[in-house]
Automatic annotation (TrEMBL):
Belongs to the AAA ATPase family. RarA/MGS1/WRNIP1 subfamily. GO terms for biological process: DNA synthesis involved in DNA repair; DNA-templated DNA replication. InterPro entries: AAA+_ATPase, AAA_assoc_2, AAA_ATPase_RarA/MGS1/WRNIP1, ATPase_AAA_core, DNA_pol3_clamp-load_cplx_C, MgsA_C, P-loop_NTPase. DNA-dependent ATPase that plays important roles in cellular responses to stalled DNA replication processes. It comes from Candidatus Woesebacteria bacterium GW2011_GWA1_40_43. This is Stalled replication fork rescue ATPase. Residues 43-159 form the AAA+ ATPase domain.
């Protein structure tokens, strides 16, 4: 037992002992209801758990498997091949097992599109119950067909009350105490991540001989704060939003601060760079901005951390200080709204391409002049104007 980490030792085995995520596991939670319904219905859906680190995704998957009395196979997408999963499916078929095994795939967003495609038929045919876990938005990281066959459940960052409950169990197990100031320090440094809290506590406990753990002991164990989520519970998606809005407002200092928050948290630089590429087209007047943003993306892709943080910073400063103009973006969105409203309006005959003799005879291309100033919009919306230069309206 000495080699088993504290988070694993204290991992709950039942929903009764599980801490947090009351909206999912409480009396009216979907997981609770699904497990209760198992007594009359053998079906259990595939799930995607989306939430911050240390919020109970793996634990919930294990509890579900135990409750259903199903085979449980745990994989990490970082070091797993699809054939590993397919092998166990084939074995299940050979053994003629009735209930589909539960396959837990941690960091499912690490599987590329082709790998996710290969999982699709096994989920669709009920060969497995897939439970994927991800810290990334599944709308962007999980292919649509697979996403449509799974129920996405969102896990929230653990509250201070949740962390205190887990902390109490840990201190009882370690036979240690924390003063109020040390307790506050540990809670803030953990940023809603129970695993971080328990790991730091375990290291600090091993460093001291006295019954009480103090702040210097925690600082030594921690070495570096976990920046992925701040103490107010603001997650990464709020930080990336703040980053974009700061650049849009030309607040270069705020943009650099939120960029630094993401870099310090170890956020994928390509994710940040992709958002900068989108921003360059949506919000900046000069087309050079797109060239700059693409160059930042390529630099990040080529050299990676830590050096690419300098490329991100240079790009953020350029985009934040550049002249802003959303005229192109707004014009396109208006045009798109009309497409959705009116459907496929007929293209005027004069600008249709007369690729056959018959087309030419019925009037395709007739009257077209290369530099004609007349509106080329369909008849129903002729004269409609979408594009206005900045401040022209």
């Amino acid at each position: 037992m000495a080699n088993i980490p504290l988070p694993e030792l204290l991992r709950p085995k039942t929903l009764k002992d599980f801490v947090g995520q009351e909206n999912l596991v409480g009396p009216n939670g979907i997981i609770q209801k699904l497990l209760i319904n198992q007594s009359t219905n053998i079906y259990f859906p595939s799930l995607i758990f989306w939430g911050p680190p240390g919020t109970g995704k793996t634990t919930l998957a294990r509890i579900i498997a135990n409750s259903l009395k199903r085979e449980f196979h745990e994989f990490s997408a970082v070091n797993t091949k699809v054939k590993d999963i397919e092998s166990l499916i084939q074995n299940k078929k050979q053994l003629r097992l009735t209930n589909a095994p539960i396959v837990f795939l941690d960091e499912i967003h690490r599987f590329n599109k082709a790998q996710q495609d290969k999982l699709l038929p096994h989920v669709e045919h009920g060969d497995i119950v897939l439970i994927g876990a991800t810290t990334e938005n599944p709308s962007f990281e999980v292919i649509g067909p697979l996403l449509s066959r799974c129920r996405v459940l969102i896990l929230e960052q653990l509250s201070e009350k949740d962390l205190l409950k887990i902390l109490g169990r840990a201190l009882k197990y370690l036979k240690k105490k924390l003063g109020k100031k040390a307790e506050r320090f540990l809670l803030e440094a953990s940023n809603g991540d129970a695993r971080v809290m328990l790991n730091v506590l375990e290291i600090a406990s091993s460093l001291v001989k006295t019954p009480t753990i103090k702040i210097p002991d925690l600082e030594t164990a921690l070495q570096r704060r976990q920046y992925t989520f701040d103490k107010q519970g603001e997650d990464f998606f709020n930080v990336i939003s703040a980053f974009i809005k700061s650049m849009r407002a030309s607040d270069v200092d705020a943009a650099l601060y939120y960029l630094a928050r993401m870099v310090a948290a170890g956020q994928d630089p390509l994710y940040i760079a992709r958002r900068m590429v989108v921003f360059a087209s949506e919000d900046v007047a000069s087309p050079t901005a797109l060239v700059v943003a693409n160059a930042v993306f390529q630099a990040c892709n080529t050299i990676g951390y830590p050096e690419c943080q300098e490329n991100l910073a240079a790009g953020a400063v350029y985009l934040a200080t550049a002249k802003k103009d959303r005229s192109s973006y707004n014009a396109y969105m208006e045009a798109l709204a009309d497409v959705n409203k009116y459907g496929n309006l007929p293209v005027p005959l004069k600008i249709r391409n007369p690729v056959t003799k018959l087309m030419k005879e019925v009037g395709y291309g007739e009257g077209y002049e290369k530099y004609d100033k007349e509106s080329f919009l369909p008849e129903k919306i002729r004269g409609k104007r979408y594009y206005y230069r900045q401040n022209e309206r």
